[in-house]
Amino acid sequence: xxxxxxxxxxxxxxxxxxxxxxxxxxxxxxxxxxxxxxxxxxxxxxxxxxxxxxxxxxxxxxxxxxxxxxxxxxxxxxxxxxxxxxxxxxxxxxxxxxxxxxxxxxxxxxxxxxxxxxxxxxxxxxxxxxxxxxxxxxxxxxxxxxxxxxxxxxxxxxxxxxxxxxxxxxxxxxxxxxxxxxxxxxxxxxxxxxxxxxxxxxxxxxxxxxxxxxxxxxxx
Length: 220
Hints:
Elements: H1 3-8, H2 15-22, E1 28-34, E2 43-49, H3 70-83, E3 86-92, H4 94-100, H5 102-115, E4 123-127, E5 137-141, H6 144-147, H7 149-172, H8 178-181, H9 187-196, H10 207-210
Parallel strand pairs: 1-4, 4-5
Antiparallel strand pairs: 1-2, 2-3
Helix pairs in contact: 3-7, 4-5
C-alpha cells in the first residue's frame, strides 16, 4: 500500500464505544474475525474490551489488521492485550467449517471469543455481523474494523493468533508454505495445491480445493 492510500484511510476512533459508555454500558467489546476467505485452516475471532482511558504511543498505530504488515501487527498485539480490560479468542477448525458452513462457523468463533471475556461484556460491537439469538446488546458496525477502535484491536488480535496457528501448521504439513500465505488463495498456494493435493486442513468445499482431484490428498 502506497503512502497516499495509507494517508487517505481513516483512523479508527472510540466514537461507538463512547456512545455506549454514555448510555451506561461499562464493558464494551469490539469483535472481529479473520480467515473467512481462506482455503485452509480455521476461522478465528477475537473480542477486546478496552478501558475508557488509553495511554501509550501504540494507540496511534492501530488500524484494521489488513492494512498493517505482519511486524506491525505483532508489535501491537502485546500492548492491546495488556491494556485490555479483558480479551478472548475463539477458533473453529476446517472440519466444522465444512460441516456447518463458514457463516455459522464464524458466528461460533465470535461466540467463543465473547464467552471468554472476564468480566463479561455488557455490549458488543461487531464488524458488520450481528449474532442470532444473542441476549447481550449488540451492534453491527459497517466498516467496523476500519472505523471502530476496539474492533480494529480485535482484528489485530485475531489475525496475529491465526497467523501463529498457520505457522505451526506449516511444520505439520510441509510443502504448502502455510507460514507464508496463511492459507489464503495466493498463486503460490494454488501451485502447492496442484502439486500436492489438499492437506487435512484444507476446506474441501471451497472452490479451488473442491475442483482438485480428491485422489491427490496429502498422504505424507
